[in-house]
């Protein structure tokens, strides 16, 4: 989604305040909406809060991101783009995506999420029209730049929607404004989504003109294979895991295994494994009183010293220092 504060779950459990995201074993996220029962989400956040890497995930919701300071790398369905202050993105439904900074540079951003079912349920014709823009052969994402007037309307709309969602907590009538703003965001974004032509030669990579983008839609079998390998990693985090083990879990060879991780997660299998172990270590450090050595073993590190070495490289501090900071 990993070096993140994140819960990866097999079954439905309640969220913890130490877990900004709730991710299931198939990498799907359960959004934590601002108001129970209203499938809209708006929040300002910092990349630092996620350990400078948000875990690879997907959800049914449309997602809008506006970077207000700093910069970050964005990965959508394996395609990587840089986003700087004043830029943003619309991410289509059910696309694997995440933000990260290998340089551990912070980024402040605004996120808006809207469940398309909320509006699609109003009228069957509207649902069919929206589903047509969410299909696999449509744009995975649309990049936004404040230098473009059409994009500014969306970027300012993301900010305004987030402020309105905050106001809804104290004044439920403001949710009418939030619904209106969410509808506008979806309308402006979906009109920018276009069909991505399939390459004539069947080659893997492709781009379309303008600032909407996509990688080729993955076949259901390809995605299922990737998720099977991810589930194996999550279920066996405490054990020694090799590349052959991961590939075997997906019933593919090493080369295909690496290609699937590059496409869907933008990482090698071993990088994903290390990210996930560090993320689980952060969760255990912040959420309990297990000894550092016990956490190292539970996360699959061969020794406490090696856990500390990898943790410091990723987080810039020792596990003990991280725990002291998080538990203040």
TrEMBL record:
Q: Extract the InterPro entries matched here.
A: Cupin_2, Homeodomain-like_sf, HTH_AraC, HTH_AraC-typ_CS, RmlC-like_jellyroll, RmlC_Cupin_sf, Tscrpt_reg_AraC-type_HTH
List, alphabetically, the PROSITE patterns matched. HTH_ARAC_FAMILY_1, HTH_ARAC_FAMILY_2
Q: Which UniProt keywords apply?
A: DNA-binding, Transcription, Transcription regulation
- Which part of the chain is the HTH araC/xylS-type domain? 227-325
Single GO term (MF): DNA-binding transcription factor activity
Keyword Transcription applies: yes
The protein's matches in Pfam families, at most eight in alphabetical order, are given as: Cupin_2 (PF07883), HTH_18 (PF12833)
**UniProt superkingdom:** Bacteria
What protein name applies here?
AraC family transcriptional regulator
Give the organism the record lists: Bifidobacterium callimiconis
């Amino acid at each position: 989604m990993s070096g993140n504060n994140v819960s990866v779950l097999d079954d439905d459990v309640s969220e913890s305040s130490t877990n900004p995201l709730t991710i299931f074993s198939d990498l799907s996220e359960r959004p934590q909406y601002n108001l129970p029962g209203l499938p809209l989400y708006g929040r300002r956040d910092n990349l630092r809060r996620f350990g400078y890497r948000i875990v690879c995930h997907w959800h049914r919701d449309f997602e809008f991101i506006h970077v207000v300071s700093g910069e970050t790398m964005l990965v959508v369905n394996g395609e990587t783009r840089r986003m700087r202050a004043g830029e943003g993105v619309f991410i289509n439904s059910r696309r694997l995506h995440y933000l990260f900074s290998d340089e551990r540079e912070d980024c402040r951003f605004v996120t808006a999420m809207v469940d398309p079912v909320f509006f699609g349920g109003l009228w069957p014709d509207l649902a069919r029209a929206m589903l047509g823009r969410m299909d696999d052969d449509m744009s995975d994402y649309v990049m936004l730049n404040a230098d473009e007037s059409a994009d500014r309307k969306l970027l300012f709309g993301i900010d305004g929607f987030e402020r309105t969602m905050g106001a809804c907590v104290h004044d439920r009538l403001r949710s009418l404004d939030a619904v209106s703003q969410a509808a506008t965001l979806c309308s402006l974004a979906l009109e920018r989504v276009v069909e991505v032509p399939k390459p004539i030669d069947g080659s893997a990579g492709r781009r379309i003109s303008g600032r909407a983008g996509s990688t080729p839609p993955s076949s259901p079998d390809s995605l299922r294979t990737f998720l099977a390998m991810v589930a194996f990693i999550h279920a066996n985090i405490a054990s020694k895991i090799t590349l052959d083990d991961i590939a075997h879990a997906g019933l593919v060879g090493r080369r295909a295994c690496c290609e699937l991780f590059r496409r869907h997660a933008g990482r090698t299998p071993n990088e994903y494994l290390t990210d996930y172990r560090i993320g689980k270590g952060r969760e255990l450090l912040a959420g309990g009183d297990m000894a550092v050595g016990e956490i190292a073993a539970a996360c699959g590190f061969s020794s406490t010293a090696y856990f500390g070495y990898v943790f410091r490289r990723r987080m810039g501090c020792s596990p003990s220092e991280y725990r002291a900071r998080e538990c203040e």
